[in-house]
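Action item from last meeting closed. Structure (790 res):
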């Protein structure tokens, strides 16, 4: 409405037109008199009575109507001169004067009508100007109120910023004290530093907002000045000011939320400080307990040494007894010789009696016949005894020979076992310390056709070089080829899979650290590969590995080996360690949730988790019951991709300790079998609420695992193992001297092609990694010379 009005400069020109006309003489005569004079002149015939110089009377004539269209006509009338009449021709001059007067009257009428129009328009413009001034005054008052409110808001924000700075400084000092007190706890230090960075960013953002508010205040002040010059922009600026006020309110609410978040962070840091103190106290208690156990073991060793000395004394006493028995045997032989001589004397006496006792001759003959028969029997008995002694000596020689052969065979078996272990380790090193196997899940009934509308298909090359090692993926006409240490198609059985890793499991008994973990998207068959299903043919890697370990350990007992084993099972859920074998745990919830599980690595590459339940196992039945308990306690959930999806990383650890009395060797092996949670995209999984938080945590830990693998592949000096609990737990397996194998499980359905390609590419990067040479943890015991005979 205001834009249709003429500019303000035109108003000023029209207002100044009145004084200008007064200066020219237009207002010297009242307007009413001029109009009456003009009307009287027209009433007298259109010719006014003009008194000439000669006193002649005027002549009434009807003059034509004269119209003026502009200023040029008026200037032309004023510039008109009298025509050439003589001074005495009064009539002619009067006619000319009357025409000129008529023209002047018409000009005056035209000017008066124009002035009336100007006056009406001026009144109209004055009314509009008054209304605009009133509205401008109201807007100025509203704007001043808004400016005052903004100043008050800015002052409030400045005070809050100062309070936040004070809290930040206080938090910074407390955090510095915590860092100096617990310098060894690097993970807590990293979290504190990240919190400090967050607070710094928040402070910078608040400072930036304060500067922006000050700039907006300056803009408002400049706008207030421009409002006096540009009245037409007041309404638009008022709307902008209201928008800024709403934004300021939102900013104040955001600052309140940020303040509450900072207070929560401070409480979390205090709780972390208390937990770290508790952990330190528990570590001191455990250290004292370890010292006490060490003293008890030392005393037990002393007792064993005393017993060993006693056994040696008993052995010497037995040798002395054996010598005395040999002496007694010689005495018995001498007595037998004396007895034979006495028999001869008795025979002589018998002959004397035969001569003297003729009456008993018949009896003597009978006795002689009986004696002859007995002599024959005795001879036969002597011959039989001699033959038996000869056979006994031959059997003794054979037994001695067989014992020597047995000792040689046992030595050869020990040497062969050592050679087998060395060759087996060499073969695995040649194959790569981090090996990668790929397994394609069979197509299920609810999956549909793998060659879906997107044109996705999986094939396996048949060339000699890539048979059993390659896999081809065709997606929308583009062929992607991958190769790994072994590729299992959808027809491969659980037995076929385990045959390929059985020698790697054997390495755990030989004293190596072995890690096997399954990776892939949700529903790709990781849990089936690792755990399997009930049934002989459906058993997974974990139960088959344990069966092989117990079977082989019992077989090695004949070679002098004695093994002891300990099992533990845990899960990493939302970056939190949960003990699946805890006594108070049921249905995925641990009653004793106040335990603080801490991962520690010693210089020898051994990993321990504090307060974790470790159980001694003696057979496959013990481990089977533990696996059933752990699977019932494991966190699972339903997503759009799987009815029973594993929502955590499952870690099974079997610590093996073996000793051989014959070779005085001691080995310590570790077998880690890990079922990782499935990687999945949020849009595809349809996760919300707790499931959304679980999915984000899983993807974060798997992303940290990929970062670690890529850092190892590139040979970086720093490998970010501490970015996740999972990578920190697997640090000795991925970056140490262990043997690691990864199963990448993929799904053949067309809707999973994106995740399949990502999994295969990640597996290729893992296959290119090189870690340290695996070392066998053995300990040779010194042989006491006093225990050897001969």
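Sequence:
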């Amino acid at each position: 409405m205001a834009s249709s009005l003429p500019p303000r400069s035109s108003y000023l020109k029209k207002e100044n037109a009145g004084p200008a006309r007064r200066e020219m003489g237009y207002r010297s005569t009242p307007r009413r008199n001029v109009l009456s004079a003009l009307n009287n002149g027209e009433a007298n015939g259109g010719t006014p009575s003009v008194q000439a110089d000669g006193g002649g009377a005027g002549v009434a004539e009807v003059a034509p109507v004269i119209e003026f269209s502009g200023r040029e006509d008026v200037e032309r009338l004023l510039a008109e001169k009298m025509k050439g009449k003589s001074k005495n021709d009064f009539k002619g001059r009067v006619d000319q004067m009357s025409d000129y007067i008529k023209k002047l009257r018409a000009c005056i009428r035209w000017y008066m009508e124009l002035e009336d129009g100007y006056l009406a328009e001026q009144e109209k413009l004055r009314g509009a100007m008054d209304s605009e001034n009133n509205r401008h005054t109201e807007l100025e008052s509203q704007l001043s109120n808004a400016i005052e409110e903004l100043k008050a808001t800015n002052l409030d924000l400045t005070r809050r910023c100062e309070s936040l700075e004070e809290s930040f400084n206080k938090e910074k000092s407390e955090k510095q004290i915590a860092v100096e007190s617990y310098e060894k706890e690097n993970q807590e230090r990293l979290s504190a530093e990240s919190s400090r960075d967050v607070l710094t960013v928040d402070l910078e953002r608040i400072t930036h907002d304060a500067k922006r508010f000050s700039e907006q205040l300056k803009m408002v002040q400049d706008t207030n000045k421009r409002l006096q010059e540009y009245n037409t922009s007041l309404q638009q600026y008022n709307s902008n000011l209201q928008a800024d006020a709403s934004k300021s309110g939102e900013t104040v609410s955001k600052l309140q939320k940020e303040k509450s978040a900072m207070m929560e962070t401070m409480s979390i840091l205090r709780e972390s400080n208390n937990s770290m103190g508790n952990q330190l106290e528990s570590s001191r208690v455990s250290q004292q307990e370890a010292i006490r156990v060490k003293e008890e073991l030392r005393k037990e060793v002393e007792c064993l040494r005393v017993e060993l000395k006693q056994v040696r004394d008993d052995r010497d006493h037995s040798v002395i007894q054996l010598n005395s028995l040999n002496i007694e045997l010689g005495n018995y032989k001498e007595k037998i010789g004396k007895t034979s001589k006495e028999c001869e004397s008795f025979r002589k006496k018998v002959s004397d009696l035969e001569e003297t006792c003729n009456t008993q001759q018949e009896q003597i003959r009978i006795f002689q016949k009986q004696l002859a028969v007995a002599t024959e029997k005795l001879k036969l008995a002597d011959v039989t005894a001699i033959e038996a002694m000869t056979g006994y000596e031959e059997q003794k020689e054979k037994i001695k020979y067989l014992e020597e052969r047995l000792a040689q065979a046992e030595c050869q078996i020990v040497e062969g076992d050592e050679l087998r272990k060395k060759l087996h380790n060499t073969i695995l090193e040649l194959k790569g310390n981090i090996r990668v196997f790929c397994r394609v899940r069979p197509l299920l009934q609810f999956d549909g056709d793998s060659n879906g509308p997107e044109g996705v298909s999986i094939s396996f090359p048949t060339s000699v070089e890539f048979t059993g090692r390659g896999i081809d993926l065709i997606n929308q006409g583009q062929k992607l080829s991958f190769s790994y240490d072994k590729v299992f198609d959808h027809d491969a059985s659980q037995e076929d899979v385990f045959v390929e890793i059985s020698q790697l499991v054997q390495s755990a008994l030989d004293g190596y650290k072995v890690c096997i973990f399954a990776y892939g998207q949700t529903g790709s068959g990781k849990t089936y590969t690792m755990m399997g299903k009930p049934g002989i043919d459906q058993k997974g890697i974990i139960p088959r590995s344990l069966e092989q370990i117990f079977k082989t350990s019992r077989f090695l007992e004949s070679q002098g080996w004695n093994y002891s084993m300990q099992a533990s099972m845990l899960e990493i859920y939302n970056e939190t360690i949960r003990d699946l074998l805890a006594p108070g745990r049921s249905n995925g919830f641990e009653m004793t949730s106040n335990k603080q599980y801490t991962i520690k690595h010693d210089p020898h590459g051994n990993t321990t988790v504090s307060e974790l339940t470790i159980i001694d196992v003696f057979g496959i039945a013990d481990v089977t019951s533990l696996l059933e308990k752990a699977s019932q306690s494991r966190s699972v959930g339903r997503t759009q991709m799987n009815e029973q999806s594993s929502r955590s990383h499952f870690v099974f650890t079997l610590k093996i300790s073996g000793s051989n009395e014959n070779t005085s060797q001691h080995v310590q092996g570790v077998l880690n079998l890990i079922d990782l949670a499935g990687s999945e995209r949020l849009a595809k999984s349809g996760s919300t609420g707790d499931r959304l938080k679980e999915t984000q945590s899983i993807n974060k830990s798997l992303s940290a695992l990929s970062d670690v693998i890529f850092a190892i592949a590139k040979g970086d000096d720093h490998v970010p193992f501490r970015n996740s609990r999972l990578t920190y737990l697997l640090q000795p397996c991925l970056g140490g001297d262990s043997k690691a194998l990864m199963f990448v499980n993929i799904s053949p359905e067309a809707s999973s092609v994106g995740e399949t390609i990502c999994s295969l590419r990640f597996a290729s990067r893992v296959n290119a990694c090189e870690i340290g040479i695996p070392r066998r943890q053995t300990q040779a015991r010194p042989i006491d010379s006093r225990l050897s005979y001969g």
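Note appended to the action item: The longest strand covers residues 561-573.
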